[in-house]
Amino acid sequence: MLTIAAGVAVAEAIETVAGIAPVLKWPNDVYLGEGRSGRKVAGILAEAGVSRGQTWVVVGFGINVLPGSFPPELASRATSLESELGRPVDRGELLATCLVRLAARYDDLRGGRSSDVVQAWRQRASSTFGRRVEWDEDGAPKSGVVRNVDDEGGLMVETDAGSARVVSGELRWL
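RE: above sequence
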């Protein structure tokens, strides 16, 4: 759920500061849609661990703000805010807004309002519903069509064998 919440927060911050409404792709990618390039502009990573009996999670995010030169294998899939807008974006304001939105979405999770987070995620990810995906499960490739995200942030995929719930791993969009 932290990755889902962070995706929503980063998308909200980009929309607030840059005026672009990003779309989300499960579980951790932020893309520019709706009249934009459709390329990835940001990503979220979460790393969990246990130390001295305490569970912890570190959430990180990266946003391509400045125009850049992407390696050939990424050039057709990645973009930056300034490349899309054709104008500068205040990086300090974007960072501050991201942190404020992350704190607010974390408070939603801690306050039992995870349904608000999931609903906000669904609204920003609706363009991914109905798309084909594949992933590996227990060493075997699986594939199907994305139907939704459940209330715990799991991706619901319709396969030939029925409904499947994907909660982690590498997802390949077809």
